[in-house]
Amino acid sequence: MLRRWAQPFVDPAVFDYWASHINPLWTWERPLARVVGREEAAAGSVTLVLQPNRHWKGFTPGQHLHIGAEIQGRRITRSYSLSDIPRADGRIAITVQKVDGGQLSTHLCNQTRVGDVLELAPAFGDLVLPKTLSGSLLLLAAGSGITPLMSLTRALAAQNMPRPLTLIYWVKTTPQACFVAELQALAQRFNNFKFQLIATQEGGQRIHAEQLSASLSDDLHALACGPGGFAQTARELLADRAQSFKAEAFTPAVPLNTDSKHQVKVELRRSGRTLEVASGVPLLLALEAQGLRPQSGCRMGICHSCVCTKHEGLAEDINTGERCSEPEAAIRICVSRACTDISLDL
């Protein structure tokens, strides 16, 4: 009641500045979290346990959230999946894989320590369990795509594994695999949970139809998460075999039949600039290569933080191949490329 009464008279930024001198988690309305736990999850990966302040509203297993940190004077924000399930103490966990050249992933894996404070944003994403559990479930993970699927597996284990579940997890090498001991223990505990780890640089094969055949059933619900090409292949393999299929890709699928050397002009109407960029590159990456910093979040076409208006020109969604020539249309620049000269509201 007092907060509602004071709202018109309070500048949130001023309040946050002075409150942070008393407690770094005190803000007027901004979600923040303190790092309260840190442990190595696998080679090149770390799990951070976070204690959010009261402004963070929780999540559903399988969802993502934006994490922000100040690095060399700049606020860097990226999307990470929650790897745990909702807990009674309100704490949450993310498992971060260090990416070559990734500023935030490197910072979180190498520099972040217990006691540090990170920015949060509301959870998002629909890679969640069906509302009505029926039939069998198949989870397909590649690389860091294991994190949201681990959250789903833990959620099902907390329900005593109510439906048959198979989790197949691809990594490059075995030391890079997260959660293996826990997943193997769950497979021992529950007869209807099957877990398979495939290391592609140790003789394991990339995803193909025969690997999935033993997990197929008449009432199958499948979820996949991994690089764009992996998610796309999973979708193609299960298109006619699953009752439902959901996938999320943390990198765009490789665009087909595109000439990355072909140059197009991108007019940025609000900033009054015109740039030349390669047609085969996602617009977000192309603009960042020219020194611009458009608003973005997940960088994989899920959170819609990068959506902007395309005034003119032809754009193609790199994940789906769908093309948009309609003027004044909203596009996601992280997964859209310019097929022709294009005009954006940036």
Structural write-up:
InterPro entries: 2Fe-2S_ferredoxin-like_sf (IPR036010), 2Fe-2S_ferredoxin-type (IPR001041), Beta-grasp_dom_sf (IPR012675), Cbr1-like_FAD-bd_dom (IPR008333), FAD-bd_FR_type (IPR017927), FNR_nucleotide-bd (IPR039261), MRET (IPR050415), OxRdtase_FAD/NAD-bd (IPR001433). By secondary structure, this protein is an alpha/beta fold. The two termini are 40 Å apart. The chain has eight helices and 19 strands. A six-stranded antiparallel sheet has the order 4-3-6-1-2-5, covered by helices on one side. A five-stranded parallel sheet has the order 9-8-7-10-11, sandwiched between helices. 20% of the residues lie in helices and 32% in strands. The protein has helices at 2-6, 12-20, 103-111, 146-158, 180-189, 209-213, 228-238, 283-289; strands at 32-42, 45-52, 64-71, 74-81, 92-97, 117-120, 136-142, 165-171, 193-199, 220-226, 244-249, 263-268, 273-278, 307-312, 315-317, 323-324, 329-332, 336-338, 342-344. The chain folds into three domains: 31-120, Translation factors (Elongation Factor Tu (Ef-tu), domain 3); 136-249, Nucleotide-binding domain of ferredoxin-NADP reductase (FNR) module (Rossmann fold, 3-Layer(aba) Sandwich); 263-344, Beta-grasp domain (Ubiquitin-like (UB roll), Roll).
